[in-house]
Amino acid sequence: MATLALSAAISKTGICMHLPKSFTRAVPFIFVGLWSTGFIGARWGLQYIEPFNFLFIRMLLTLVAFIGLILWFKAQWPTLKQCGQQMVTGSLIHAGYLGGVFAAIKLELPAGVTAIIVGLQPLLTAFLSKYWLGQSLSRGGWLGLWLGLIGVVMVLGSGLFEHQFELHPGALAAALVALVSITVGTLYQKRYGTGVNLLTASFMQYVATALWMGVLTFGFETGEISWDPHLIGALAWLVFGLSVSAILLLLLMIREGESAKVASYFYLVPLATTLEAWLLFNEQLSLLALIGIAVTIMGVYQTQRSINANLKVG
């Protein structure tokens, strides 16, 4: 129901103008909650399927879901040029990011290390926004971003080095591809994604992603699948909870907010994932992790306050 309500609100204009203000203020936190569950869903699903095949099937199911939404709400299709731009966005935000993260983990880079590398996104976004979009941060904003990163490292680092691991160059390269892809993808969408219906835009993004994942799975994987109820449940949640609901929220935030402000919310994702793992898998939280959570929340709050203050002055 929430997905249908969100789709209805943005199907015509792409702007969340028909939703209550209380909901629009909660959008970033709903997004964080949904996005963070992607790591939990992957953990459940990857026991029964190879990563690129997992993503390929997920993208095909997502396309079916979006076709239904597009037909139901009679969403306007983008122009040929806009379709190409949305496919670039999809290649970056979905194929590059998800493919990079899954490949890094497949190459035995610990999820915590991967998360720290990808956690550089808000800082990289703020740096690139200054030169690409002309959006600059104040000292307070930069302080908030650095605090957020320190907090994330504290949380993930609290249990990161209990076991030794070997750092493979390919795994590190995959994690860096994920970092650059999600950063450049959000900036590209901010610059070129305006004026496009979010339902049809998302559909074109997932077309590109499905093509990329198809090439990767048929080119490098065996195609073996064990159809376990856990895999089916993980696929259902990742399609409707993330690929539909969370992505629509992300695109909405990118359209309506400052790039650095939107990116700062990504600092909350690993924290939410850590808490979910604690609840679902009984993974223990150390004192350092709890302190890191507090530091990250302070950093995100500082960044948001700084950007909002600049907007009021402007």
Short précis:
The protein is mainly alpha-helical and 314 residues long.
What is this structure's SSE topology?
Layout lengths: L1 H9 L10 H25 L5 H23 L6 H27 L4 H8 L2 H12 L6 H19 L11 H24 L5 H23 L8 H28 L2 H6 L3 H14 L5 H27 L1
Helix pairs in contact: 1-10, 2-10, 2-12, 3-9, 3-10, 4-8, 4-9, 5-7, 6-8, 7-12, 7-13
List the defining traits of the structure above.
single chain; 314 residues; mainly alpha; globular
Structural account:
Helix content is about 80%, strand content about 0%. It is mostly helical and about 325 residues long. The chain has 13 helices and no strands. The model is unreliable at about 10-15 (pLDDT under 50). It has one domain (about 30-314).
